[in-house]
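Q: I'm writing up a methods section and want to include an example of the input and output format. Could you take the sequence below and give the corresponding predicted structure tokens, formatted cleanly so I can copy it straight into the document?
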Amino acid sequence: LHFMTLLETKFDLLGNFRLNVMMLHAGVPFHVPPPKTLLEHALRIFVREVESHSYGRRAFIVFLPTVALAVVQSYRMFQKQAIAGVRVVVRRLFPLAFLAFACTFALWGIVQFIFAAAGHANLPIQVTQTAIEYLLADTGSQNIGKPMELTAKDLDNAYPLPKDTLELLHNARITLVPDGPTGRSYRWRIKGPPIAEWFYHATIHLEDGTDLKLSVERSQWGKPSNMVWNIRIHWPGAAEDEPLWGQ
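A: Here is the clean output for your methods example:
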């Protein structure tokens, strides 16, 4: 965790929202659609293999290069006169030990980066949804069916936004259309009445031209209060929206 914080501070590795979304597709595969690119598919397989409960698979990934180097070294040693001595043994074993350490560190670092980047895409979206719920609990009944033009400051006033969310929503134009309360509520507030859940459609036009589309819609099955969450992203120049969550 501290290693990723250092890299983020020094190199801003997690400042690219589009890269973070791609890592979300790879690192959190249980709620996102099938991967579209070969890279996303490879990353998803990689994360599943590493995060599996099979120690043998992880060990295989880490030590396969080490075993390959050991085979090459053994082949070369059998072609030469054997030389005894501790220094010779240490010199032969050092490349193997270093490669095993490098593979382990690289494996850990890649997985940590994927999940850190996924969190930088997922958490700001979740916090934004929470802020929308707080805002609608206070003002939604006055604006049902009417588009509300908001800014990040309006959401921050309704629910304090963390730094990474404020950075994502910097100079963003937010259009929110309340469709009405769902009839359900949650005690998210420490004081005061529970927060009422709302059906709504929100389009967040980010500063770089990306459109983040959030909606809570009525389900076609079950009770009228049943909800379907949808999160879609329209990248600048893209022909269609990219689904991130939901149908």
